[in-house]
Each structure stands twice: as C-alpha cells, then as structure tokens.
What we know:
- With 347 residues, the chain is mainly beta.
- It has two domains: 71-198, YerB-like fold, CATH 3.50.90; 222-346, YerB-like fold (3-Layer(bba) Sandwich).
- It contains three helices and 21 strands.
- It has helices at residues 133-137, 153-161, 192-198, and strands at residues 79-84, 99-104, 110-116, 145-147, 165-166, 176-178, 188-190, 222-223, 226-231, 234-241, 246-251, 254-255, 265-266, 268-272, 276-278, 284-286, 290-298, 301-309, 317-320, 333-336, 344-346.
- Strands 1, 2, 3, 4, 5, 8, 14, 17, 18, 19 and 20 form an eleven-stranded mixed β-sheet that branches. Strands 9, 10, 11, 12, 13 and 21 form a six-stranded antiparallel β-sheet that branches.
- A hairpin with a 4-residue loop joins strand 10 and strand 11 (246-251).
- 37% of the residues are buried.
- The model is unreliable at 1-39 (pLDDT under 50).
Amino acid sequence: MALLAACSSSGGSGADTSTASTPNTIELSTLPPTVVTEPPATTTTEAATTTSTLPPPVYPLTGLPVTDGNELAVLRPVVVAKVGNYDAHPQSGANLADVVYEEIINDNVSRFAMVFQSQGAAEVGPIRSGRLQDVDLLGSLGSPILAWSGGNGTVTREIRDSDLVDMSPNFCGSACFRVGFDKAPYNLYFDINKAWEQAPPGAGIPPQQFQFRETSAAPGGLPSAGVLVKMDSYSIDWTWNATSGLYERQQNGRADKERSGELVTTNNVVVLEMVYNKGISNSPDAQSTGTGQVWVFSGGNMVHGTWSRPDRLQPFALTADDGTPILLTPGRTFVQLPRTGGNVTPK
C-alpha cells in the first residue's frame, strides 16, 4: 500500500507548465504492527450449595418423631376419651393413647382419661361420664375435645363453660356409636379419627406435657422393678419387662388386658400423689394444681421428686429430689393419680 500526494499551479505567461512531484511512499515495514485484542475470558463462578436435612417434627405428647410423612398431624388437637375401668367390661384404646390418666371417682373405683394425638383408634370405650376434676386436670392440653357420655347438670355446665370442647352424644355425630357386644351403659364407643373430622370448633394444638431424654441417653434414677399403686378399691401393679422395654400392668391380681386380649403396657409410669376433696354427689375431686410427691418409672429405673403446677393451663413440672428435671423415655405415658397417704410402693 502507498500513499500518493499531488500538487498543481498556473503561471502568468499563458504557457501551461505542469510540474509532477515524486510521490512519498511509506513502506509497509514502517507501519506500526496491527494488534488484535481478544475480549477477556468470561469466568462463571457458581455459588456452592449446602443441603441440610431438617429433622422430622416431633409429636408433643410422646416426644417421638413423625415417621409416616404426615407432618401436619403434630398440629391436630387432642381427643380425650373418658373410659370406664371395669374388670367385667374390658376397655379398648389404652395401648393406642399417647397419655392415659387414671383418676379416682365415686364408689372407690377409678376411671381413665385416654389422650389421643399422635394416632387414632377406631374403637375406644366404654365411654362414660365426666367429673368436675376433668376441667382442671385436662386444662393444659390446649382446649382438648372431650369424648364423654355426659354428666349431671353441674358437671355439664362446668364442662361447657370451660375451654374443653364438648363432644358428648348430642354433638358427636357418627364419631360415637353403640356396640352390640355389651349392654348399656357400657356400649357407647368412639372412633377417634372421626372425632377429629367431626368435632365442633374451638379445639387447639396441645403443648408438650413432659420432658423427654435423648433415646441414646441412659435413664436417670435407680434401678426399680416397678411399682404398686393403690387406687382406692383397685390394686395396680406395674412390672418392668427389660426384653420388651415396657411396663406391664396388673389390676386386682390379674393381668390387665384390653377387650382385644392385648396386655396393657406403657413406656413410662408417672405417679402423682393427689389430695382429693369431696365434690358433688360424693364424687372425689382431685386437686391437680399446687404441688405434691411424684414417682417416675422409666427405662427400668425410678426417680422420686416433686410435681408442681401453678394453674390448670400449665403442664405438670416434674423435678427430682436433686433439683434436676425428670426426663421420660419417648413414647406412651400412664399417669396414676392416687390419694396422698402411703398408696405408692416402689418395687
């Protein structure tokens, strides 16, 4: 490539004179070299992704994790079934309940309050009447649904004026039914799953009732074979079975079996010594607020301590004699409420 410059001019004599100038040529070798600049390389940095698996939710009354994928089950309300305790009319449902309270009623016998939250049961009964003491005893369960056969006028008013959700026969729909294998008044039963579906509004989510130990931790306390508990005219005997890891129940000298023939068992036995005042119709009225002695049997060991409860909306706080919280084994719990005065004999 050459660059060429030319000039021309005209004189006054009339003669045309053209002068050609020698072009100036720039040699290629004297041009600056061509520099090709490549765009900068694009670097893509991906953020490191950390994946962590959250532990499954835990049922509030058993301390056990949800294993069937139904994580919303931890949010459903409690159904408490008032179930009669009769040797001649065996109960159904105790081994499926998260917690069973055994309270003294009139005629020197006991009655169960079976508490269902982590799982249901298709046939729970025989369903019997409530007592005034149920309002205080069950108040910490977050406005539970009460599956019961009703009560006298005073008890019914107290139940309906409380935060318990009345699911007596007037409100139970198809969740309650009469069975053909027993006679009235021992033939009223409940389907707990249908009770959840058909319950009147107002029930809440239960808070945790007990403190549980880690499954890998050893149980506290001293070794114990079980406990004898006197519930007025009923003699209850719990014996630890190290093979099954469960406590087995006898009542009045015989194995206590459900109507299905299954032996009544539990993971924990909690004995709360109670003062009983005289209530209406000569029905004992357990004073479940305040303080008293507690014995906890769990994992083959026993811990003695004190229970305390400032009001009916609070769970029982269980404190060992050394001042530490009493920890239960995750699982089912049977709570006995004997009278004060020497009715508890650890084995």
